[in-house]
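User: For my dataset I need records formatted as: sequence, then structure tokens, nothing else. Please produce one.
Assistant:
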Amino acid sequence: MAEGKRACEKSFADTTIHADVKDYYGNVLKKTSDLKSNACVSSGQPIPAFIRQALKKVHPEVSAKYYGCGLVVPECLEGSRILDLGSGSGRDCYMLSQLVGESGHVTGIDMTEDQVEVSRKYVDYHMQEFGYKKPNVNFVQGYIEALTEAGLEESSFDIIISNCVVNLSPDKKRVLTEAYRVLKDGGELYFSDVYSSGRLSDEIKNHKVLWGECIGGALWWEDLLQLAEAVGFSPPRLVTASVITVGNKELQDILGDFKFVSATYRLFKVPKDSKKACQVIYNGDITGVEHSFHFDCQYTFKVGEVVEVDGEVAGVLSGSRFAKEFTFQPPGAPCEPCGVKPKAGIVNPFELIQQLGTGSPGPATGGCCGTQSAACCK
């Protein structure tokens, strides 16, 4: 049985796409300026002060060998168990280690041996720096399509984050399936990735440079909705979106009329039983968003303000870690006149960009598709 498992892992590791990605980010690219698109260019939006402070405590070598950009940091992290897909040198894991606190835990998984070696090298340094009695972070070498094979237990994480990594996998359904499997009930997959305006041609998907640039493996955004449903996740909630451009004529000619965006979605592992619409009041206790909580592009919750949410969002909020952050009451409650009714939901990132009239991302922690690992830049 063990031999069969090792054979499966070896076969999986030898896929052409994974080898090409490792080569592109290990040998072809030497610095960020070598990139041929802005899929891996960081946002100009300000980073919240508490996150900047956490990043300052990360060891210089870990930060120096972090070849990605941008941040994907969801809210309400204290005490949580987090998994970072494509953790690279471990910079984000050490930042998150501080945000979850000593009672929480962060696991990073990456397929690149050199990067995992760097991340593991400084565990003791960071625990001493943070004043923790024992490590609350660990790093695993493995593949995002094979989390359980890498030793990650089922139903063991509250949150999974990923920044521009899923597009580099040749089997995205398997990635989502594995993520769903290791998430606890009520858990969230909060991730930024590249999406296309349609299903890409074989010429684009087989182009090594475009794949390495996080474009050739981009998923048609509508396929994300179908894959999420097939795996068991709640319908994806679109948080932010920004335009991706390619400053290379040769590559642009190959891409033709296809358009690309970087978009951040929330997917939750919650029961699919029908929930009724209700009113919610945000209590303002989430660190960093004490006054206003931007849940997605449809709902922003302000402290003390009554907001009417549909049944889908009511189910997500009441069935996840956010349940304790809200007061729930039925529609038509006494304070309904002051309630805020949301606009129609948006799941199409291209539509969101058009409505916003800008190519800029939303909150700085919503992700700019800054890349991770040999899976895109780390």
